[in-house]
Specification:
Blueprint lengths: L5 E8 L6 H10 L12 E9 L5 E9 L6 H7 L5 E7 L3 H5 L1 H11 L5 E6 L11 H10 L4 E7 L7 H12 L1
Parallel strand pairs: 1-3, 1-4, 4-5, 5-6
Antiparallel strand pairs: 2-3
Length: 172
């Protein structure tokens, strides 16, 4: 990576088991692993990205544990974040509702950073219980903060690259 590359800290926020780690793995390696292990505290990943305009971006991606017992600890991990991917499970409505708390916690620690909302597990369409109207209402509640929404699948890779790239562009 060139010395003049842009460096950004990105956090993935959301409840446990919504697919944050699998989304990161899909983005970094292009593959999927069904082997679920809960994140304890935080995991940090890196990826170098070259944008369409030739700019090089170095990402430090922080996978924040979603379990409630880590709430007080995780707020420290938001410091110096440049952007956040807010992840919920399209099959579990509470995971979208609980993002209100995540947004509040992130905003209490950071200055104004861009957010991208991700509805994960779109491949489980037959189990989907969150409607586009639900997502639109949530985004209206946070219209000043959330830039865009994507339905993604870590399993198939659908919209994963696009969500990360959109966040990168909004951080530039």
């Amino acid at each position: 990576m060139a010395e003049d590359s842009l460096k950004y800290k990105v956090v993935l926020a959301g409840e446990g088991a919504v697919g944050k780690t699998t989304l990161i793995n899909r983005f970094i390696t292009g593959s999927f692993s069904a082997d679920y292990k809960a994140t304890i505290g935080v995991q940090i990943f890196s990826k170098e990205v070259t944008l369409d305009n030739g700019k090089e971006v170095s990402l430090q991606i922080w996978d924040i544990a979603g379990q409630t017992l880590f709430r007080n600890l995780r707020t420290k991990f938001f410091q110096n974040a440049s952007g956040a991917l807010l992840v919920f499970d399209l099959t579990i409505p509470a995971t979208l509702e609980n993002l209100h708390t995540w947004i509040s916690d992130i905003k209490n620690i950071t200055n104004s950073i861009p957010f991208v909302l991700i509805g994960n597990k779109v491949d489980l369409n037959e189990l989907k219980s969150i409607t586009q109207d639900d997502v639109n209402a949530f985004m209206m509640d946070h219209f000043e903060d959330i830039r865009v929404h994507y339905d993604t699948s870590a399993l198939t890779g659908e919209n994963v690259e696009q969500a990360f790239e959109d966040l990168i562009k909004s951080m530039l």
